[in-house]
Amino acid sequence: MAYVISRWCIRGGECIEVCPTDCIVPGPRDNKEWPYLYIDPDKCIDCGACVSECPKHAIFPEVEVPAEYAEDIALNRKFFAEGPGYWKFDMEELRKERAPA
Ligand code: SF4
Ligand code: SF4
User: Fold this and answer.
1) pTM surpassing 0.90?
2) Ligand 2 pocket, 94 CB below 6 A?
């Protein structure tokens, strides 16, 4: 099992800051095909640390993803298998996308 980021993600990267395995990666900015952040299912250790950091409650254990977001499970996997995957993103740039507190 792994955790999954759903389409409720508004970017910002709070989840990245707490992930112990660095398995959360943003879609490249302004890339409409990959607008959210994605979790690598092969590296996620199911610790759940990212869940409480998410202001949009966008992260679910795979088995608890609501039915209406079920396709997001495959999208997280596809991001790493066929999409951008790991790339050298700028964390400071991502932080700037956060909504003001
Ligand atoms: S559950 Fe843990 S390992 Fe998996 S993405 Fe969240 S913080 Fe990272
Ligand atoms: S904390 Fe939630 S909204 Fe923010 S980037 Fe991570 S999944 Fe997206």
Assistant:
1) yes
2) no
